[in-house]
Amino acid sequence: MQSKGSSSMVSSMVFRTRISSLLISMFATFASFYVAGRLWQDAENRVYLIKELDRITGLGQSAISVDDTLKIIACREQHKKLSALEMDLAAARQEGFTSKTSSDTDGAVSKRRPLVVIGVLTRFGRKNNRDAIRKAWMGSGATLKKLENEKGIVSRFVIGRSANRGDSLDRSIDDEYRQTNDLMILDQVEAPGELPKKAEMFFALAADRWDAEFYAKVNDDVYVNIDALGATLTSHIDKRRVYIGCMKSGEVFSEPSHKWYEPDWWKFGDKKSMNSSFGASNRYFRHASGEMYVISGALAKFISINRSLLRTYAHDDVSAGSWFLGLDVNYVDEGKFCCSSWSTGAICSGV
Predict the structure, then answer these.
(1) Which pLDDT does position 67 carry in this prediction?
(2) How far apart are CA 78 and CA 47, in angstroms?
(3) For strand 348-350 and strand 251-253, is the pairing parallel, antiparallel, or unpaired?
(4) What is the tens place of the pLDDT at every residue in 227-282?
(5) In sequence order, what are the residues at sequence separation of 6 or more whose Cβ sits closer than 8 angstroms to the Cβ of residue 226?
(6) Where in the chain are the domains?
(7) Which CATH architecture fits 116-245+289-349?
(8) Which element (helix H / strand E) includes 189?
(9) At what angle do helices 297-305 and 66-94 cross, to 10 degrees?
(10) How far is 24 from 16, CA to CA, in rounded Å?
(11) How far apart are CA 17 and CA 6, in angstroms?
């Protein structure tokens, strides 16, 4: 028979053992909450950083380096992929973890990334040109949708607003949009001097709206061979940062009376060339001709992120070329994009 002292010792040991087990359980529980909280906080921090970068660059409060910009692009792409995976996981949980990817009658995925978004820059008083393009290569209604769904080619006319908002010019564009649904109406004044800013806004908004492989700028007096364009772009789809067009280095004119006057002529060399009666100075840097040129998705996203910081010059093609000077870009001088002369296999032709 145990003594009263030994019985008390056993009870004390059992009590201490229970307390230790309880403390270990509580510690494990708190540790689990801590780890889960840190993981959740890290995810929230990533989202917060992306939003802050968008806010800062959008307000033009701070310039960021090219390397940082490209890192932001990659981070944003990863964030999109993560969001898509989370949505797929949620849908799978609801549907018993079964895959139900939408397919057409041939078994191909009906929703796919567009190959190219084409922005046809147009202006007021050019409806005849737009109608001609709709009939020639862009299509309208069901034909326009078929081109998007089957070939991955999205085409939109790009136009601004009248300086007198709500006037007959604005109303006519609104009426045309309701009938055709193929216009991208920008929130900026439609004016000849605003063409470079117009091209910049198109690339930025198109990159925000469509996640395409390429983005193309075209004038509204250019005929486009859609099949040739699709074949050419497909051959460059493996290049991450590509700039395709009919490359040139035009003269910089310093005389205000000249048709192609460049107000920032002094950035390109001496004021005048002794051999030119028009007051031409040095030449512009290498850039694609403005009738039609194409940039890859990464470059369009670069424009979108830095739209408030990018400088424009007198011409939209020169402006676009200047945006890529400091980047690691693959320049493709493609003769098929020289629209001034039509040849077999050409992609575009001026009309």
Answers:
(1) 65
(2) 11
(3) unpaired
(4) 999 999 999 999 889 999 999 988 888 888 888 888 888 888 775 544 455 544 58
(5) 137, 147, 151, 153
(6) 116-245+289-349
(7) Alpha-Beta Complex (3.90)
(8) strand 183-189
(9) 110
(10) 12
(11) 17
Distance from the Cα of residue 300 to its chain's centroid: 4
DSSP labels for 123-156? -TT-HHHHHHHIIIII--THHHHHHHHHH-EEEE
Q: What distance in Å separates the CA atoms of residue 104 and residue 340, rounded to the nearest whole number?
A: 40
- Yes or no: say if 299 and 329 are a contact pair by the CB < 8 Å rule: yes
Through-space distance between the first and last CA atoms of the chain, rounded to whole angstroms = 115
275 within 8 A of 328, measured Cβ to Cβ: no
Torsion of CA 28, 30, 33, 37, to 10 degrees: -130
Counting beta carbons within 10 angstroms of the beta carbon of residue 191, is it exposed (0 to 12), middle (13 to 18) or buried (19 or more)?
middle
Strand partners, 109: 103
Torsion of CA 321, 327, 332, 338, to 10 degrees: -10
DSSP structure string for 264-301: TGGGGS-S--TT-TT-EEEEPPSEEEEEEEEEEHHHHH
99 pairs with which residues across the strands?
none
**Alpha carbon distance 77, 335 (integer Å):** 32
Backbone angle region of 236, left / alpha / beta, with phi > 0 → left and psi within -120 to 50 → alpha: alpha
Q: pLDDT by residue (tens digit) across 162-175?
A: 999 999 999 999 99
Phi, psi at 293, each rounded to 5°: -150, 160
The first and second tokens of residue 118, run together, are: 């084409």
Burial class (CB in 10 A: 0-12, 13-18, 19+), 153: buried
Q: What is the DSSP string of 211-239?
A: --SEEEEEETTEEE-HHHHHHHHHTTTT-
Query: Angle at CA 323, nearest 5°, toward 320 and 324?
Result: 100
292, 348 contact by CB (below 8 A)? yes
- What pLDDT is stored for residue 213 in this prediction? 96
Q: Which pair of structure tokens corresponds to residue 147? A: 């081109």
The type of residue at 346 is A
Single out the residue of 322, 305, 292, 323 nearest to residue 208, CA to CA: 305
Structure tokens at 285: 């840097």
